[in-house]
Design a protein that fits this description.
- This protein has 82 residues and is mainly α.
- The chain has 2 helices and 2 strands.
- A two-stranded antiparallel sheet has the order 1-2.
- The N and C termini lie far apart (94 Å).
């Protein structure tokens, strides 16, 4: 009884989709082995990736600057006078 719905299901012929990929930016289908549908999308994707790398590095840069500033302040404040 639990598999009764499978008995009435019609068998559809399997459709063969040619090998393809999708544009990394817009998702449009492209020939297999290609990454982008046009040169403009390739340039936009590279700019977007560069911006994302910079934005992910900003917190690390900020922490390094704060740590360096704190170290310099502590050296100046706690060093013996000349």
């Amino acid at each position: 009884m639990p598999n009764s719905h499978k008995k009435h299901k019609e068998q559809k012929p399997h459709l063969q989709v040619p090998k393809h990929a999708h544009c990394e930016l817009c998702g449009a289908p492209v020939r297999y082995g290609m990454e982008f549908c046009n040169a403009e999308h390739k340039d936009l994707y590279k700019k977007k990736a560069r911006k994302e790398r910079l934005m992910s590095a900003l917190p690390v840069i900020f922490v390094i600057i704060i740590a360096a500033a704190s170290l310099m302040i502590s050296i100046i404040m706690f060093s013996p006078p000349p």
